[in-house]
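=== Structure Prediction Worksheet ===
Name of assembly: unnamed complex
Input type: mixed (protein and possibly other molecules)
Chain count: two
Listed entries:
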Amino acid sequence: MRSSDHGRQEILDAAEGLFVRYGFKKTSIDDVARTARIGKGSVYLHFSSKEEIFAEVVRRVSSRMLETLVAAVKRARSPVGKLRAFVEAKLTSVAELAAEYHLGEETVLELLPLANSLREAHLAQEKSLLEHVLRDGVASGALTLEHPDLVATGIMATLGALEATMAVHTRQVADVRAGLDELLSVLLRGLNSGPSSRTT
Amino acid sequence: MNPVMQPSSDVRQEILDAAEGLFARYGFKKTSVDDVAGAARIGKGSVYLHFDSKEDLFAEVVRRASDRMLTALLGAVSRARTPVAKLRAFVQVQMTTVAEIMAQYSLAEETLLELLPLAASVRRGYLAREHDLLVEVLRDGAAAGAFVVDHPELLAAGLMAGMTAVQAHTAVDDRKDPQVIAGLDEVASVLIRALTSGSRRSPEPRESPGRLPRGRKACPSMTRTPKGSAWPHRGGRGPSSNGRNPGLATLRAGGLCEGHVRTPCLRAMRQGGPCS
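=== Predicted Assembly ===
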């Protein structure tokens, strides 16, 4: 890329703030340029359209989330701990993101479908991380499950759905969280206590 | 058909049927009372004899759909014999009813996203009852020695949050991916294994809800109806449906806006305030 990477980051920072605050439609390239304190033409040196900026913003946020997930899983010691860490990190990062930006319901509903179509690759990576955790757990005898891939798919679908709900209804998060924690505990008990009694 | 000849409650049903179809197809904003009157083949004034406003009409459509959903849940749970089968029945009906409705209407994403928050406040009461029913299933299962549940209330809240979220998500994303469905099913199996594994050892057979699980002795709850139960027979509160489409978008509407949600949108709108 010819243009400085520095300018690119500033454009993305500016755009991220604007998108979460005003949504996609109401944010113009002009707004982004002004906030980043550069000319509109310079924005076009880096990105060909608003859609492209948005896609890059989503990619950046998704990368951060993935890093958080990987780190959380690495820190945890036991397979069950890793699984719990994965779920908790995923739910927490969304809740934090939503709370940090005070996203309006309308904005979330507009941005989520847009973002999700761009997040496929990251979601696939997250899923494979989860599957990895499950398989390792099975290999070490700590977890008992017959279909790690299916369980991973199911957990990802549930978490993805919960993310959406939590992003929209940030204030109710605490309320729902206690219930979800309980659900997770039961789920872990199920994975931890299979018929083969190889439990730790 | 001459509307004048019909008893008033039939007209009311026809207005609701017309409105249900229109809301599902065009969304709330783009549907006018005029449209509803036109589709129901009656005068606009007649609509106002039955409903105060478009908001009122919408609330009733949601209520009717929610009624059907609750009735289906109650029926399925009371038909199932074992605690595990009851739990599975609850989850399955929750998920399939919504999926069926989705298949009937091909809602535009935009329409759906508009309707979800609107329906939330009406759905709240229903979701609370669905939650109570689930708590009861868990408690009864525990009492019968079939489940080990430490916190039925919390677990029910978590399950409801998970299910309603998944419904909304599935609706919005239009994901009918069989892989995802199979995955969710697998998660449900793991949960059931967890609930049943504390007391007795034996994985649940998944194929036959309602039949006696292998290796499990008949427990008392299989024949009895939970005492003090509000659910098995609610006199008169049947499906208000007249054999028509079960309940449109509004049902999945429960989806995004789960029981704990307090979006006072419709109420605010009723009072002439802004929505949110």
